[in-house]
Amino acid sequence: MFSKVLIATDSSPSSYATLGCADALYMLGTRECVLAQCFMIKEQVAFPDQIKDSIVSSLDTQKEILESKGIKTTVVAELGLAGEQIPKIAEKRNCSLIVAGSHGHNLANEILLGGTAAEIIHQTKKPVLIIHLKADEETGKPLYADNNKNLRHHILYATDFSEHSSLAFEYVCKFVECGTVHVTLLHVQDQARLGIHLKDRLDEFNEIDKQRLEELKKRLVKIGDAEIDIEIPYGSPVSEILKRINGTDVSAVIMGSHGRGFISEIFLGSVSHNVIRHSQSPVLLIPRQIEGADPTKESCNIK
């Protein structure tokens, strides 16, 4: 699973911190990586090849870090905005996953590795793993959260029962096949949508949605030996999801993203975006359409 990934990078402390996920990626089956950096130059500069060579050389240390973890690494530098070029590189190089680090709260505004995380997610038709970086309490420098060494341990799957969520569930199935020991299936009864007019039917909705989650549970039980929990809270989807991420041992969240075909403003106001901003665990976002290599069809290749 995720045998070949693209890690969006640069020479910043954040990019080095993001490489802390190398062990976790290896445990997911990653054996090959494209380390990609994008750059911009002024029109009058006539030597982009020299700039590209300089960037490739500067990323040698990051390449060595990844290869020391058993991940064969190729360094790529491309002219252009990361939000546009990273998805293209991932497609061209047949990567099954894009990995990017984020400080979280400023996701919509911060420059992330030459572009914005939201732009990468919006443009790509590849799954995107957003790695949460925390700040060192003394220095303020970004750090990789050590509790994220094994992303397969406890998966939280948040669903609204849409077709898009069903696609994301296929990745939950793959994680269970590859050794996940605990899965929480979560559907939040949206308080804002039910309002005062439908709240009296909450028990009815809960029963219907419990049956839906039970069917998903049956699929997972047939695949592996994971402990499966079902939860149907009532409230704000973002708040209820984050409560379970940040208050338990959840190692990764799997959910759908909006992806291409939806304007950025919709994504930036979505549940997915707000979960990414505040989640202390990595979030795996699955686009509506997958192009190229399908990770759910790959062998686990785990150790």
From TrEMBL:
SUPFAM superfamilies noted in UniProt: Adenine nucleotide alpha hydrolases-like (SSF52402)
Residue ranges of domain UspA in the record: 1-132, 153-287
Pfam families: Usp
Family the UniProt entry places it in: Belongs to the universal stress protein A family.
Alphabetical list of PANTHER family matching this protein: STRESS RESPONSE PROTEIN NHAX (PTHR46268), UNIVERSAL STRESS PROTEIN MJ0577 (PTHR46268:SF26)
Protein name: Universal stress protein
Organism of derivation: Limihaloglobus sulfuriphilus
Lineage: Bacteria, Pseudomonadati, Planctomycetota, Phycisphaerae, Sedimentisphaerales
